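Researcher: Please generate the 3D structure of the following complex. Treat every line as part of one assembly.
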Amino acid sequence: MESTEANEEKTGSVSAAQRRAEIRRKKLLMNSEDRMNRIVGFAKNEPENNGASRRAAEPRFHLELDRTELWSSPSSSPRPSPFLPEASVLSGHSRSATPERRGSPLPDCSELPPSLLEDSLRQRPRGERASDDVGGSPHRGFKKYLSRFDDAMKLRGQLANEKPSQDGGSDSEDFDPFRIFRLIGSILLAVFVRVFVCKYLSIFAPFLTLELAYMGLSKYFPKVEKKTKTTVLTAALLLSGIPAEVINRSMDTYRRMGDVFADLCVYFFTFILSHEILLLIGSETP
Amino acid sequence: MAAGYAWFLVLGSVFLCNLMKTLLPSISSFLSKMVQKDAEQESEMRAEIQEMKKEQSSISMMDEFARYARLERKINKMTDKLKTHVKSRTAQQAKMKWVVNIVFYILQAALMISLIWKYYSDPVTVVPSRWIAPVERLVAFPTGVAGGVGITCWLVVCNKVVTLGLHAVS
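Model: Done. Output below.
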């Protein structure tokens, strides 16, 4: 008799414990939904969240998630951030998953054992999580600042490494085959123009034609990997938030303009030189 | 006759300036070697330290600790002295480099200004103006002579060509 009573009491206590656990779990899940609503911008004093409004909120929530993932991707900065969610110990889930997502009854969370889920939720007081969520944008700003700071440090190191080599040769222009071809072509054209063409038209017309030809010919020459020079200007542009791609393109255009200018200088110099030599020889008078 | 060679004079000046510029580090190091006459003392100190180290390695620290420690202290003292010496020499070299650079740039600026002054109104060379159309005004600046090649244009062209040439050679 006693044993049956004890058994009943035991089952009763087990069921009571289970009930309590269930209530707690529901409460936590409800809390997570509340938090979710707070994140997506629903105030508590709004009329009780009906299904429609909740549904309307869902896409925004996903957008927020995506953005968070973008900013907290580990590739952007290897530095372990103090803002990283501690519940990232839940292995198998990416760091970028927010606690809300983990706490919410979303499909990817169903894989976790409920005890682990509850533990993970229990570990974090409500206030902490709320502060994490609210501090999303300072977190981003901080990460952005850190990544820029890292960039600046890298550039500083690069500049320090490059400085001695630049001191050795102030103009570190490397002569690739196309460059040599261009210069030789300009010299030959200048001599040719001085001897045959310049009586009839301006000397710059053949030069422009030659440059057009170079533009067409450039694709038949092997592309030389040009080491991008890190100057103070590029560092400043990068730190001021201009994308590296834009800076690279501008530097490329600048380099091409420099090449054309060098061609023009060589062409004009050779032309004047040959003109003076011809005058000296006395074969021709202008 | 002299006016006919103005282009060559400018070219020669630019070439010399660029050549000097490439030789500046060796010139400054040569000058600092000339100024510093205690380089021998430094090499003596180095040799002495080497000898003491060799001697120290032949001594057993356990058996002759006092001698070992004395030698160690001597080596440390000598090394500190050498370090101070090297530091002062490096500072002096840097100073010399700075002075040589400053002097060079002042001389270069003076040369360029005098050339521009001299050929401000005379073109360095003259070609028929139709040859350099439509930029004959730009090329002739500041002379204003139709078909003339102005000093500024010629300086820029010479500088670029000489830089390229020297870079190709070096």
